[in-house]
Every structure is written in structure tokens, then in C-alpha cells.
Specification:
With 71 residues, the chain is α+β, with helices and mostly antiparallel strands. It is built from 1 helix and 2 strands, in the order ββα. The chain has a two-stranded antiparallel ribbon with strand order 1-2. It is elongated and about 50 Å long.
Length: 71
């Protein structure tokens, strides 16, 4: 049993994507108000990967070409 000295997990909660404003792609006719994002990222071997995902995963998801077609 190893006791962690720090919390390495990260979480992102976005109940309304439209609140992200200028960070969202435009021109696809997508109304972001109907989308939410909830992510829990496990930092098994450190905080770096989980922290990057915490700050980028939700944006990468909406930038995918098929997002508005098949969310």
C-alpha cells in the first residue's frame, strides 16, 4: 500500500458548452447550448497527462469534424 502525497486526478465540468464562447469553433451551425462535458482524468503516474486532458479534451472534442453530425 502506497500513500500518495498529492492528488494527481483531474476533473472538468462544463454544464453548458456555449459558456466557452470564443474558444468554440464557429460556422458549423451548431448550437452549443445543448451540450455538456463531464470528464474525470486519472493521473496514474503523475499529474501531467491528466492536467493536459483536463484543459484540452473538451475543446478537441468539439473541433472534431463529425462532432455536429454525430455528437
Amino acid at each position: 500500500f502506497t500513500r500518495l502525497l498529492s492528488q494527481e486526478d483531474r476533473v472538468t465540468v462544463i454544464p453548458d458548452y456555449s459558456a466557452l464562447g470564443p474558444d468554440l469553433p464557429t460556422g458549423r451551425g451548431t448550437s452549443y447550448a445543448r451540450y455538456a462535458f463531464f470528464g474525470i482524468f486519472d493521473g496514474h503516474q503523475g499529474w501531467r497527462c491528466s492536467s493536459v486532458l483536463q484543459h484540452t479534451m473538451h475543446l478537441k472534442l468539439v473541433q472534431h469534424p463529425r462532432f455536429s453530425a454525430a455528437p
